[in-house]
Amino acid sequence: MKAIVLHGSPRKNKNSDTLAAYLLNGLCESISFDVRHFFTNEMNIKPCQGCLSCAKVEDKRCVIKDDMQDIYTAFIEADVIVFATPMYWGYITAQLKAVIDRMEALVVWDYFKGKTFIVLITYRYHCESTVAFFERICKYFDVRLHTITCRTLDLETDTDIPISRCQDKLNEAFELGRDLGRISASSRWTAG
Ligand SMILES: Cc1cc2nc3c(=O)[nH]c(=O)nc-3n(C[C@H](O)[C@H](O)[C@H](O)COP(=O)(O)O)c2cc1C
Question: What are phi and psi of 129, to 5 degrees?
């Protein structure tokens, strides 16, 4: 089984990355997943130019030859795609948005179908817009979706808190990963 993690935050090993780490610990508990991490903030990924070459039968590929090419290959091979992102101005980070725009090259040729998306969102006040976005596209493109959201703000004092103080959410991420890992292990056993 293969998984990729698309890290949206420029803050490595902080809130959304930590949530992803707990999820992966659970996922790999009963079956070994080959996991690849993509830290989008450190990658050379140009914004989509809207040329739609990727949708043309004669091309079928994105014409921009940058680090997104690695993500295309890994995405196609992966069973599970984890999106880990903080909310920035009511949406995912710009780094992750650039990746999703470039996924036009995958979706037009039906590479989303049958995948499992796990969306991990950390936020202060609102995350509904991003939750609704993933719900809409996953329904449309036949993708299984699991979402965990975690508020990293103490509402009483209106101050940021580290995700280590949100142990219930870290447990939820671990348990989701563990359940999906178990399902993958049993379906592989049944199939084999
Ligand atoms: C530039 C910037 C914009 C942000 N915009 C939002 C927002 O629109 N809504 C929200 O709930 N939180 C917002 N936040 C808070 C982050 O989403 C939150 O602190 C998150 O836990 C950070 O995750 P990270 O540690 O993985 O980077 C913003 C933070 C920054 C730095």
Answer: -65, -40
